[in-house]
Design brief:
about 5% strand, globular, mainly alpha, two-stranded antiparallel sheet, binds S-adenosylmethionine, 2 strands
Length: about 260
């Protein structure tokens, strides 16, 4: 903990560098928004020209190997770069105010690489034909994305994507301490953002083998990521998080659960 606090204050840049760091944070955030919005269309098969069911054709075995490798790159980047021990070492190289933006930059690159190199498996497992049912299913799936979006704001959107850090640095302030938050969504489940992804990925009017592989891979990653994240949250927030974990379910709200 003391090391983390120390790292927050390491490499505090001078005035000349601040503008560049802020510009870096803003450009990374804008790039992330574009790639993430594209990813919504890519997964859903809506609006964008190139989706999860498009791309270079490959034999099934090759497609599975390539897609699993891409998912693993994505998972490794998220898992390793989010760990406190990595941040502690990383901020000896990268100025501390740029750390989160750099994480977002690498996450954006991993997502773009995944979409770019994804090999389609377009054979259908199910395909709902009734139009109004398709509309309902799309609405639920897009609701999952809306939940992701809402959860980022519930927890601290600008901090999660590195903007708060670069803007505080711009005005000469150091990084704020981590705050344990349990706004409304976080009183229903501990991981509403991940729950939103699971809904968005699995609820589909047309399920191809490619999308199924994507849904299985990302859900598996989320289940592993939760363990690591909660381990770090307990390290940071101690008994507050331990108690919270006993009271609030992980991903699926309890029927009639008391919220408070
Ligand atoms: C991508 S967000 C996902 C948050 C959460 N796992 C979810 O699914 O809603 C990951 C960041 O949120 C932070 N975080 C998770 N739960 C938190 C809470 N209740 N209060 C403050 N920060 C939290 C973690 O420390 C991590 O930096």
């Amino acid at each position: 903990m003391a090391e983390m606090v120390e790292a927050r204050h390491a490499h505090r840049p001078g005035g000349v560098a601040r503008g560049l760091i802020t510009a870096y944070g803003l450009v990374v955030y804008a790039t992330f928004v574009v790639v993430f919005l594209y990813a919504i269309g890519w997964v859903e098969g809506l609006v964008v020209p190139y989706t999860i069911n498009d791309g270079p054709a490959a034999p099934v075995a090759v497609a599975v190997v390539v897609d699993v490798a891409l998912l693993m790159v994505f998972a490794m980047q998220h898992s390793v770069m989010a760990r406190p021990w990595f941040k502690e070492r990383w901020t000896r190289i990268v100025p501390q105010p740029m750390e989160r933006s750099t994480y977002v930059l690498f996450a954006t690159a991993a997502l773009a690489l995944l979409m770019w190199q994804w090999r389609p498996l377009p054979e259908q497992i199910w395909d709902v034909e009734t139009n109004w049912v398709r509309v309902v299913i799309y609405a639920v799936s897009l609701g999952g994305w809306a939940l992701v979006f809402a959860a980022t704001f519930a927890i601290d959107h600008f901090d999660l994507f590195g903007l708060r850090q670069v803007l505080r640095n711009q005005s000469g302030k150091s990084a704020p301490p981590s705050i344990f938050r349990t706004p409304m969504l976080y009183r229903m489940v501990r991981h509403p953002l991940y729950a939103g992804f699971v809904i968005a990925f699995w609820v589909a009017p047309t399920m191809t083998w490619g999308r199924l592989l994507f849904a299985v891979g990302t859900t598996g990653f989320i289940l592993v990521a939760v363990r690591f994240e909660e381990h770090d949250l307990i390290d940071t927030f101690g008994d507050d998080y331990r108690t919270y974990r006993t009271r609030v379910p992980m991903l699926v709200p309890r029927c009639g659960a008391r919220r408070g």
